[in-house]
Amino acid sequence: RQFQGLQLEREACLASNYALAKENLALRPRLEMGRTALAIKYQELREVAESCADKLQRLEESMHRWSPHCALGWLQAELEEAEQEAEEQMEQLLLGEQSLEAFLPAFQRGRALAHLRRTQAEKLQELLRRLLPTGAARGPPAVPRSLPPLDSRPVPPLKGSPGCPLGPAPLLSPRPSQPEPPHR
Fold first, then answer.
1. What residue ranges do the domains of the chain occupy?
2. Distance of CA 42 to the CA centre of its chain
3. 172 and 119 in contact (C-beta within 8 Å)?
4. Can you tell me which residues the record assigns to a coiled coil (predicted)?
5. Contact (CB, 8 A) for 78 and 171
6. φ and ψ at 11, to 5 degrees?
7. How many whole angstroms separate alpha carbon 33 and alpha carbon 39?
8. What digits encode the pLDDT tens for the residues 92-138?
9. 48 phi-psi bin (left φ>0, alpha ψ -120 to 50, beta other)
10. How far apart are CA 145 and CA 125, in angstroms?
């Protein structure tokens, strides 16, 4: 009896195994399709992650390039350049290298440009003082990150001033006006 019971149990196990194997074989194509779909989704995820990392890098560069502190630095550099040019023009006049007729319009344009830059710089400084209390962090606001960066390749340094890696932004210039007649 015990032997017959074991024999029946064995046959039941074999029948169960056979049915499960048949079911597994029937599900195999679905499994392969699922694996293929998952591989495709992972590839799409990689592409989206790379695109997102590139866009985040461009956003951070743009935020830094167009920060008020960089604009202030550019304005101050342009102001110094305009004042230096005006001094050079005065020296040329005093040394007799330039006529008074040529000097006056060029000097007037240079001084107007320097005045415009100084005014813009002062207004921007005042605005920054009002918006950012002393001791506040300088530079562009940080981009919140909930995930670690996906791409850790170093970014090559770009040309520009030490505080701003990109070149200067175009600044406003005074409109050319009718030259005033020389004063008598």
1. 1-65, 67-131
2. 27
3. no
4. 42-99
5. yes
6. -65, -35
7. 10
8. 999 999 999 999 999 999 999 999 999 999 999 999 898 876 654 45
9. alpha
10. 30
